[in-house]
């Protein structure tokens, strides 16, 4: 079973993402802020991480930049953000994000992206 970390400080949005991905059969862990996400990513064996751009403690961007090279090489990173300008997308991708999803998004869109990434 593929393992996914969902890191977002908005409880309702995190719950929506978790419910959507659990329905697809993925094993999910959650983080409420960037520092917790970083710690779990460095400790855990995840296939994918969905990181909110704007979180307390560390932003999603800071999390990606702080990951060890080994962790970055072994995980797919999705940046989830309301900052949907092209320059924001490029900053996230240049930092090491593999994919970029703009808020608002539909659960169907998220499901399709995750299934494509982990296929």
Structure description:
One of its GO terms (biological process) is phosphorelay signal transduction system. It is built from six helices and five strands. It is of the alpha/beta class and 119 residues long. It has one domain (3-118): Rossmann fold (3-Layer(aba) Sandwich), CATH 3.40.50. The protein has a five-stranded parallel beta sheet, with helices on both faces. Helix 1 (11-23) packs across helix 6 (107-118) and helix 2 packs parallel to helix 3 (60-66). The longest helix has 13 residues, at 11-23. The protein is globular. The model has no long low-confidence stretch (mean pLDDT 92).
Quick summary of this structure?
Keywords: Phosphoprotein. The radius of gyration is 13 Å and the shape is globular.
Compute the average pLDDT: 92
* CATH fold descriptor: Rossmann fold
Could you say what the CATH architecture is? 3-Layer(aba) Sandwich
CATH level-1 class: Alpha Beta
Pick out the low-confidence regions: none
Strand content: 15-25%
The protein's oligomeric status is single chain
Q: Biggest sheet, in brief?
A: 5 strands, parallel
Architecture blueprint of SSEs:
Blueprint: E1 3-7, H1 11-23, E2 27-31, H2 34-43, E3 48-52, H3 60-66, H4 69-73, E4 76-81, H5 86-95, E5 99-102, H6 107-118
Parallel strand pairs: 1-2, 1-3, 3-4, 4-5
Helix pairs in contact: 1-6, 2-3
Domain Response regulatory: 3-118
InterPro entries: CheY-like_superfamily (IPR011006), Sig_transdc_resp-reg_receiver (IPR001789), ST_Response_Regulator (IPR052048)
Keywords: Phosphoprotein
């Amino acid at each position: 079973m593929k393992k996914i970390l969902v890191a977002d400080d908005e409880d309702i949005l995190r719950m929506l993402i978790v419910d959507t991905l659990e329905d697809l059969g993925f094993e999910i862990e959650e983080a409420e802020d960037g520092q917790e996400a970083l710690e779990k990513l460095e400790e855990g064996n995840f296939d994918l991480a969905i990181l909110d751009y704007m979180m307390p403690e560390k932003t999603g961007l800071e999390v990606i930049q702080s990951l060890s090279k080994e962790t970055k090489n072994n995980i797919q990173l999705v940046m989830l953000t309301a900052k949907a300008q092209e320059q924001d997308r490029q900053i996230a991708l240049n930092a090491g994000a593999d994919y970029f999803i703009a808020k608002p998004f539909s659960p169907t869109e998220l499901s399709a992206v995750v299934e494509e990434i982990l296929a």
